[in-house]
Amino acid sequence: MKSFRLKLAVIMALVPSVIVLAFGLVAWWTLHRQMLTSLDLKMTLPGNALSRQVSPDTDTSKFQEWSQTFLEGVPAGGRLVSWVLVMNNRSGEVLSASDKGIADVKVLNSYLPKDSDFVKVPRMDPPSRRGEPRGRQRPPGFEDGPPPRRGRGGGPPPSKPKRGGGERRPSDRGDYRPPVFFSTGAATEQWRVGAFSNPYATVFVGADLGTFQAEVDQVRTHFILAVGAGIALSALAGWMIASKAIRPIDRIAETAERVTALGLDRRIGLTGREDKEFARLIKVLNAMMERLEDSFQHAARFSADASHELKTPLAVMRGELERGLKECTPGSEQEQRFIELSEEVHRLNQITEALLTLSRADSGSLQLDTTEFSLSDALESFCEDAEILCLDKELTFNSNIEDGLVISADCVLVLSVLHNLVSNAIKYNEEDGDVVINASRSVNDVVIEVANSGPGIPDDQRDSIFRRFYRVDDARSRQRDGFGLGLNIAMELTLVNGGELRLLDDSSSGQTRFAVQFPAV
């Protein structure tokens, strides 16, 4: 992830997304618990009512009758209860079970109460209508009496205590264990079970979680959609805020891209609405570009002035050397020295002219005579001179110039570019090699290719050959004439004429190919 805008958007979206996700999870967990608690409360009424009726003197037929009654919706809860099972607290014996129940009784056995689980709750009878004294209050959740009869086979009548000091009904005692709720079942069938205990037995009331799970799944789907929408909105808001936050950086980058050697006077504008951090950055960059412009102008002015000032003494030296050659004895050692000095002065004069040309190009003061001219005709004349230069070096020259090529540029500078390329092609050629010039139209451009045989340019030096004073040969020997400015001058002259100079990718050992491209007219 290299985009600062994307990083900033992710960071800004991550924080609210985590908050939304955490809130959604907590809300989902709370809602799920509330829904489960609501289901437990619905089972509490029938569970407590049935537990109140269970006693040691209740026979199996009564258990079955009561279970069936509660499954049919008595006394409350509709079809909420799915099955009922009664188990003895001490022996774990199943006293009664409805037709539909849990097969694994061991699970239910683990929820049977211990003696320490019961608490003593004072029993208080409800106040009488005519000022009768209050009795003990019954345990919480217990009703005041058995469910009302509904015809034949209704709820059980109150049990009478056995004679001979038998155990009293559990409802008459103050022992009470709060209901215990748990979930159990197989993968295909889940139950929510409530365990309602009295000191004698425990009534397990089960509700099928199929319908409950369907509601839970629906609510969960809504939660997922809501949380997903919240995260998406957070991401969108983060991207918009990040884009707005780095807008000044985009403006700085756009201005910096337009800053070149010919456009160092460009500055980043201040609108007054920038944040103080960005405003400070813009001021620092503007001050830096101003210093760069001053330094570059001083360097260009120095190069131009030095080149101009050197022209006069070089001309004087050249004149004196030529006069000395005329006065020397032919074939003498003195004549040879004068010839070597003349060559060095000529070389120094070429460097001076090249530096003067580059300084003018850098400062934008290079005079251009831009006109539309026939490049095909100009190249035909140029190729005649190039062929003569190749013959002097015993090289083969070939050309293929397409007719009707017209460009708008300075003809003298364009031919100077080609002269530098052909000079390099001849200079760095191999014995009995060849030089080729091709010119053709490509879509909306005119492309001139200059190729030569030779050692080629190593891959690790391709990006450096257009630098000033750079030469491919590491030793910079004088075996080949040159000073490392030819390609740089050709590049600068091409650029000021709106063209492009490049080394072609298929240049390899044994061949070097350059392409000069200008817009066609």
Q: Please tally the β strands and state the result.
A: 14
Adjacency order of strands in the biggest sheet:
2-1-7-6-5
Helix % is 40-55%
- Determine the structural class based on helices, strands and strand pairing: alpha+beta
Mean pLDDT: 76
Question: Any idea what the shape is?
Answer: rod-shaped
- The residue ranges in which pLDDT falls below 50 over 5 or more consecutive positions are 74-78, 129-173, 474-478
Q: How many H/I helices?
A: 10
- Give the SSE order as H and E letters: HHEEHEEEEEHHHHEHEEHEEHEE
Compute the CA-based radius of gyration: 52 Å
Number of domains: 3
Major beta sheet, specifics?
5 strands, antiparallel
Distance between the termini: 44 Å
Into which percentage range does the β-strand content fall?
15-25%
Task: Give a short overview.
By secondary structure, the chain is of the alpha+beta class. It has helices at residues 4-53, 60-71, 105-109, 209-245, 247-257, 276-327, 333-363, 375-392, 411-427, 486-496, and strands at residues 83-88, 94-97, 119-120, 175-176, 180-185, 190-197, 201-208, 370-374, 396-401, 406-410, 434-442, 445-454, 500-503, 510-519. The protein folds into three domains: 4-151 and 167-216; 276-363, Helix Hairpins (Orthogonal Bundle); 370-519, 2-Layer Sandwich (Heat Shock Protein 90).
